[in-house]
């Protein structure tokens, strides 16, 4: 049994087998807290439209704007240079397949352009076999990079400017579509003639990822695997030494520094120390803060308050946030880890004052690659410097990453000689060894495959910047094109942003990176996500039970952004802090010239003035606005202008509703207003969004939903659904016809009036449901006492409601909070549990005040 809100030790992976783990939050103990659910919660203070490249300026506050153009959406920058960051062979394959399908559907015949469509399809078919070689060579060859950019410009920017595929699907454009395709064919011919000079070779063609070569993801069923820890006696010695130093009796507040180059294992060592049993028992509070290079003062303070279990003010005012943090740590003996410090500014100008009020014996641990940070924070000398791995430890780590099963281990031991040569090329860097292990895991256990990796020409590439890692390059080149694009897109998200797996996959689908039928897109996205984890290109960060948040190491991120170089427009608000203050932020009007943006992510403070709108971004497919602005609601009023929008995520303290005309946005698939504390109402027209897959309004004040909600039959994820009663109608009835749900969060169940209302939700019939959250608030407490007869009746009624919410056998995760019945629902009794919840792996129960006993046989 796991106690404390996370299934098992969250520093370790859950088992791949469907074992049931139970968390009782009401019994949570401090000792169960773990690093993986505390780091990286602060959003990166930046403005970004994926994908981007941006130089790093230590100590600067950077806003980055960049552009993602594909699907034939046209763009010219101020230099008339097309900018886009799609993996070319993946895109060409998608376009060719789409055009082929259009021809099969007789769209071309309808428009009178059948011959031109066939010609375009044939050109793309002949091109795509060679584009993998072009994509590989462009990384280190600027001439090839220029040719690839021109080809992308032709493909993304057809004559006329409107997205070509959109025109093909809409006969209203029939009057000139033939002319557009003819001109596009001619431009492709010209570009192909130029490409002949490069003598591209036909590499092994990647088959469709759904049916092609076995992937790393195919070999494991669980996406979060504990294979990432650095091994060897050295790290164990370092861990013991640091734990001993931190737990010595010393009345002062001491700073301890872990110093080393990127990818050497500083964070791994800090995690081992943080999760050490002696540390967890020694300190009253243990806190972890990841300090991004261009952090926001406000977000870092808010994160610190939350991590310290303090009371978070609903304000951006630092003069109120600092005292709130001080109160949270006052007279508390704490351990604070500040991970990835690039300068000492976060400490000296922001955190030092409040944390200096902690109890004697408190400790601060910092990890940094910058030699000047430790003395700037007056860290105790000597600093703990991380050494490179020796050959034996490096081979042990590589083997651990490459082995996919016990049987493989014996075969891989026969490859020790090749493995030692591989780790020698990694120069003792744990991250490089892990990435190579992920790659070799994909290759399997054949000597020939290992030697091909060992002898790959990438190891001797000379045109790549010295600071970039060749192991990451090798792993990237081995990815199927469809996953390459997802990897590049992930690297462009704000570092430290709390984007969950569901968020990431939703963006991939919205951007068109995942191809398949509508029924399997999410499953494919999960497969891509697992593949990137198994290759150690991304790694689990915050470990929420049902939806982990991922990290990407700076070394990996640097390569990914290099791979997308020259394909973005970057906007700098200033090269140092003296030029722009945090309170000034970035002006929204400075973005309006970028009229062909496809994806825009704004995180931080943005100045919005009356008259600013979204009308200048008609091509947007993904829009994420997690920003602070007094006039934010004015901006949202123009949402309906974004006719191509698929993904919408808003987080703002002032917004109270979405515009009523949002129902006109027929392509919307994902909407999230979670955390908008003043949000009170969903527009009635939302029931017209028939393509909607995901709707999240947790953490809002919505207490009702519009009638007709049952029309949203394609919903897969519904979080924050309020139970509302109006006469004979209950909102639970609206869920009955919504049969595709995978993830459902019901709140306010105390409002349900009868079992009949609950049973009309037909949860037991939802064969795909895997995650279920049942939340209610007790109505029984009056000055700490239970109302007698009325209380008994209400307890009986809430049990009947829960009885009617019997989930299907497919359920994997169940959360119950605030339930005030005296007995658990009938479907949770010991006699029915095995049949009704046979797939359940995680059970979270919180504030079940009147239930005194779990069903027999549950544990």
From TrEMBL:
<dbReference type="GO" id="GO:0005524">
    <property type="term" value="F:ATP binding"/>
</dbReference>
<dbReference type="InterPro" id="IPR038005">
    <property type="entry name" value="RX-like_CC"/>
</dbReference>
<feature type="domain" description="NB-ARC">
    <location>
        <begin position="236"/>
        <end position="406"/>
    </location>
</feature>
<dbReference type="Pfam" id="PF00931">
    <property type="entry name" value="NB-ARC"/>
</dbReference>
<dbReference type="InterPro" id="IPR041118">
    <property type="entry name" value="Rx_N"/>
</dbReference>
<keyword id="KW-0067">ATP-binding</keyword>
<dbReference type="GO" id="GO:0043531">
    <property type="term" value="F:ADP binding"/>
</dbReference>
<dbReference type="Pfam" id="PF18052">
    <property type="entry name" value="Rx_N"/>
</dbReference>
<comment type="similarity">
    <text>Belongs to the disease resistance NB-LRR family.</text>
</comment>
<dbReference type="GO" id="GO:0006952">
    <property type="term" value="P:defense response"/>
</dbReference>
<dbReference type="InterPro" id="IPR027417">
    <property type="entry name" value="P-loop_NTPase"/>
</dbReference>
<keyword id="KW-0175">Coiled coil</keyword>
<keyword id="KW-0611">Plant defense</keyword>
<dbReference type="InterPro" id="IPR042197">
    <property type="entry name" value="Apaf_helical"/>
</dbReference>
<feature type="domain" description="Disease resistance N-terminal">
    <location>
        <begin position="93"/>
        <end position="156"/>
    </location>
</feature>
<dbReference type="GO" id="GO:0051707">
    <property type="term" value="P:response to other organism"/>
</dbReference>
<dbReference type="InterPro" id="IPR036388">
    <property type="entry name" value="WH-like_DNA-bd_sf"/>
</dbReference>
<keyword id="KW-0547">Nucleotide-binding</keyword>
<feature type="domain" description="Disease resistance protein winged helix">
    <location>
        <begin position="493"/>
        <end position="559"/>
    </location>
</feature>
<keyword id="KW-0677">Repeat</keyword>
<dbReference type="Pfam" id="PF23598">
    <property type="entry name" value="LRR_14"/>
</dbReference>
<dbReference type="InterPro" id="IPR032675">
    <property type="entry name" value="LRR_dom_sf"/>
</dbReference>
<dbReference type="InterPro" id="IPR055414">
    <property type="entry name" value="LRR_R13L4/SHOC2-like"/>
</dbReference>
<keyword id="KW-0433">Leucine-rich repeat</keyword>
<protein>
    <recommendedName>
        <fullName>Disease resistance protein RGA3</fullName>
    </recommendedName>
</protein>
<dbReference type="InterPro" id="IPR002182">
    <property type="entry name" value="NB-ARC"/>
</dbReference>
<dbReference type="InterPro" id="IPR058922">
    <property type="entry name" value="WHD_DRP"/>
</dbReference>
<dbReference type="Pfam" id="PF23559">
    <property type="entry name" value="WHD_DRP"/>
</dbReference>
<feature type="domain" description="Disease resistance R13L4/SHOC-2-like LRR">
    <location>
        <begin position="611"/>
        <end position="840"/>
    </location>
</feature>
């Amino acid at each position: 049994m796991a106690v404390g809100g996370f299934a098992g030790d969250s520093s370790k992976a859950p088992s791949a087998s469907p074992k049931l783990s139970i968390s009782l939050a009401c019994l949570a103990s401090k000792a169960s807290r773990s690093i993986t659910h505390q780091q990286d919660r602060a959003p990166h203070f930046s403005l970004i439209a994926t994908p981007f490249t941006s130089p790093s300026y230590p100590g600067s506050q950077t806003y980055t704007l960049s552009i993602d153009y594909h699907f034939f959406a046209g763009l010219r920058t101020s230099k008339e240079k097309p900018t886009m960051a799609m993996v070319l062979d993946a895109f060409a394959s998608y376009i060719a397949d789409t055009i082929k399908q259009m021809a099969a559907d007789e769209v071309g015949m309808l428009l009178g352009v059948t011959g031109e469509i066939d010609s375009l399809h044939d050109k793309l078919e002949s091109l795509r076999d060679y584009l993998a070689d072009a994509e590989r060579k462009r990384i280190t060859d600027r001439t090839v990079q220029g040719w690839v950019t021109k080809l992308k410009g032709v493909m993304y920017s057809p004559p006329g400017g409107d997205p070509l595929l959109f025109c093909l699907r809409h006969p209203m454009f029939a009057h000139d579509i033939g002319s557009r395709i003819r001109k596009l064919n001619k431009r492709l011919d010209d570009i192909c003639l130029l490409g002949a000079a490069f003598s591209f070779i036909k590499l092994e063609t990647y088959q469709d990822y759904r049916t092609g070569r076995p992937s790393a993801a195919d070999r494991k069923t669980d996406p979060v695997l504990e294979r990432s820890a650095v091994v060897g006696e050295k790290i164990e010695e370092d861990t013991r030494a640091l734990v001993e130093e931190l737990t010595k009796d010393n009345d002062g507040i001491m700073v301890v520094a872990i110093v080393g180059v990127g990818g050497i294992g500083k964070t791994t060592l800090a995690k081992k120390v943080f999760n050490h049993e002696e540390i967890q028992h020694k300190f009253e509070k243990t806190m972890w803060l990841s300090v991004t290079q261009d952090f926001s003062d406000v977000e870092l303070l808010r994160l610190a308050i939350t991590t310290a279990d303090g009371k978070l003010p609903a304000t951006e005012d630092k003069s109120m946030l600092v005292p709130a943090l001080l109160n949270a740590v006052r007279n508390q003996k704490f351990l604070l880890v500040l991970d990835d410090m690039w300068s000492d500014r976060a400490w000296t100008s922001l955190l030092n004052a409040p944390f200096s009020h902690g109890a004697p014996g408190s400790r601060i641990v910092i990890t940094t690659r910058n030699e000047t940070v430790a003395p700037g924070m007056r860290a105790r000398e000597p600093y703990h410097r991380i050494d490179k791995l020796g050959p034996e430890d490096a081979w042990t780590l590589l083997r651990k990453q490459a082995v996919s099963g016990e049987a493989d281990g014996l075969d891989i031991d026969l490859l020790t000689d090749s493995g030692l040569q591989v780790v020698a090329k990694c120069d003792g860097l744990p991250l490089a060894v892990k990435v190579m292990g992920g790659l070799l895991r994909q290759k399997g256990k054949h000597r020939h495959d290992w030697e091909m990796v060992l002898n790959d020409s990438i190891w001797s590439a000379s045109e790549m910047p010295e600071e970039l890692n060749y192991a990451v390059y090798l792993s990237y080149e081995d990815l199927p094109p469809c996953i390459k694009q997802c990897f590049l897109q992930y690297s462009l998200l704000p570092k430290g942003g709390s984007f969950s797996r569901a968020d990431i996959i939703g963006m991939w689908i919205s951007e068109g990176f995942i191809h398949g039928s509508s029924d399997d897109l999410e499953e494919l996205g999960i497969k891509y996500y697992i593949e990137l984890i198994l290759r150690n290109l991304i790694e689990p960060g915050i470990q929420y039970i049902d939806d982990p948040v991922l990290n990407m190491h700076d070394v990996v991120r640097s390569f990914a952004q290099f791979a997308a170089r020259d394909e973005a427009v970057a906007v700098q608000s200033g090269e140092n802090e003296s030029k722009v203050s945090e309170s000034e932020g970035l002006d929204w009007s400075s973005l309006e010239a970028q009229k062909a943006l496809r994806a825009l992510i704004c995180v931080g403070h943005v100045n919005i003035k009356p008259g600013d709108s979204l009308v200048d971004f008609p091509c947007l497919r993904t829009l994420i606005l997690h920003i602070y602005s007094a006039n934010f609601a004015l901006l949202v009023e123009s949402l309906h202008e974004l006719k191509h929008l698929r993904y919408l995520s808003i987080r703002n303290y002032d917004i109270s509703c979405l515009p009523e005309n949002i129902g006109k946005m027929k392509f919307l698939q994902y909407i999230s207003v979670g955390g908008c504390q003043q949000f009170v109402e969903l527009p009635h027209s939302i029931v017209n969004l028939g393509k909607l897959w995901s709707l999240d309004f947790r953490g809002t004040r919505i207490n009702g939903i519009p009638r007709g909600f049952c029309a949203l039959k394609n919903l897969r994820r519904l979080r924050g659904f309020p139970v509302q009663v109006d006469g004979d109608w209950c909102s639970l009835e609206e869920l009955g016809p919504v049969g595709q749900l995978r993830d459902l969060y019901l709140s306010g169940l105390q409002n349900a009036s009868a079992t009949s209302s609950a049973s009309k939700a037909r949860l037991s019939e939802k064969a795909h449901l895997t995650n279920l959250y049942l939340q209610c608030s007790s109505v029984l407490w009056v000055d700490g006492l239970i109302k007698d007869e009325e209380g008994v009746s209400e307890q009986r009624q809430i049990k009947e409601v829960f009885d009617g919410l019997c989930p299907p056998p497919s359920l994997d995760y169940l959360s119950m909070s605030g339930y005030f019945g005296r007995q658990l629902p009938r479907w949770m009794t010991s006699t029915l549990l095995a049949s009704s919840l046979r797939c359940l792996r995680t059970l979270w129960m919180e504030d079940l005040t009147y239930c005194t006993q779990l069903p027999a046989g549950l544990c």
